[in-house]
Design brief:
The chain has about 350 residues and is α/β, with parallel strands linked by helices. The chain has helices at about 55-60, 135-145, 165-175, 185-195, 210-215, 230-240, 255, 270-275, 290-305, 320-330; strands spanning about 10-20, 30-35, 45-55, 85-90, 100-105, 110-115, 120, 155, 180-185, 200-205, 220-225, 240-250, 280-285, 315, 335-340. Strands 3, 4, 5, 6, 7, 14 and 15 form a seven-stranded mixed sheet that branches. Helix 2 (about 135-145) crosses helix 3 (about 165-175), helix 2 packs across helix 9 and helix 5 crosses helix 6. The chain is globular.
Length: about 350
């Protein structure tokens, strides 16, 4: 069966490849742009014209060659990551040309993707394609399922200006938190967190010891931690934890974006505090909760439409801007998700 293709597909397209493993600072020299033939989908695949893709801190780690629970990028081969696009050919008939879909093959203008890895967005109630690339499902699951935020809780969110944290402050408030504190890397970002994104107070990395700042921002201690950073911030959170506090650990930016680029960053935790205060530490990964993205999409769509939630993100235009987008993310240049319109 020959594929049904929307007219106007070019013979070639561009993809971003890893030029060299990353050691130290991420630069343009670690990427290369290749022009290659547009792939023809085989039976069981669909051809997608990508419209928008996301970059994340984990991608920086995948470029190092360090052993990870997910696959690492390979020098000379195209990178990958979450993307939203339009089906242009569907040999198997499981999708329709023109259908909007989500899939894991970003970093290229066209992608031939196995049908099992493609999710239709036709019925998802989100107002823009970019919103499908939020990291809100992780924030929602960590707060609602792992940490079980309760009315009146004091919640501390590390990495509050990132893709997860910029939504987590709003969601903690939505779940009934009485006080929400976030950490970030600059006073400029901290001001936006307080003014726009649901945070009552902030801790600024580099403005003094984290524990001292956190005790000022949460004088009665914290009930919940959503941790995307690890390191000193996790240690400080434990020091000010209230009895029966619940910690949801979702990331380790302190190692992912440091000079080690993903090397293990040891954290000193006091077992006596964990035991005496009955602190629950729970790792959270979205892959273990396949039903949560659908639940989140419904919640997110409702919030966006009624204006009770906002989606902070930076949008760079053109596939050639993807390396810059990831570099700027690792430098902490943006608030919220970092996306590239292809």
């Amino acid at each position: 069966m020959s594929p049904t293709v929307v007219p106007g597909i070019p013979a070639a397209h561009r993809e971003i490849r890893l030029a060299a493993r990353v050691e130290g600072e991420l630069t343009a020299h670690h990427f290369m742009i290749a022009e290659v033939p547009v792939p023809e989908p085989r039976p069981g695949e669909v051809l997608v014209r990508n419209r928008v893709m996301a970059v994340t801190a984990a991608m920086r780690t995948q470029m190092t060659g360090i052993r990870l629970p997910m696959a690492s990028f390979v020098p000379g081969q195209a990178l990958w990551g979450s993307a939203v696009g339009e089906v242009v050919a569907a040999p198997g008939g499981g999708f329709t040309p023109g259908e909007l879909v989500h899939h894991p093959c970003g970093w290229r203008e066209f992608a031939a993707v196995e049908e099992s890895r493609v999710r239709s967005l036709a019925a998802d109630p989100l107002p823009t394609p970019a919103a499908h690339l939020s990291q809100g499902a992780t924030a929602w699951g960590a707060l609602r399922v792992a940490a079980e935020v309760r009315p009146g809780d004091t919640v501390f969110i590390s990495g509050a200006a990132g893709g997860v944290g910029s939504l987590a402050g709003q969601l903690a408030r939505r779940l009934g938190a009485g006080r929400v504190v976030g950490s970030t890397g600059s006073e400029r970002k901290a001001a936006r967190l307080r003014a726009e994104l649901g945070y009552d107070d902030t801790v600024v990395r580099g403005a003094g010891p984290i524990e001292r700042q956190l005790r000022r921002a949460a004088p009665d201690g914290i009930d919940v931690l959503l941790d995307t950073v690890g390191g000193e911030q996790l240690t400080a959170a434990l020091a000010v934890a209230r009895p029966d506090a619940r910690f949801a650990l979702v990331g380790a930016l302190s190692s992912q974006l440091g000079d080690g680029g993903g090397a293990i960053a040891p954290v000193e935790l006091d077992p006596g505090l964990i035991i005496s205060r009955r602190v629950a530490l729970r790792g959270f990964g979205l892959h273990a909760h396949p039903d949560l993205p659908q639940e989140w999409t419904k919640e997110f769509g409702q919030g966006l439409r009624e204006g009770s939630l906002v989606f902070p993100h930076a949008l760079l235009k053109g596939i050639q801007q993807a390396p810059r987008a990831l570099s700027e993310l690792t430098q902490g240049r943006h608030i919220g998700a970092v996306l590239v319109e292809l």
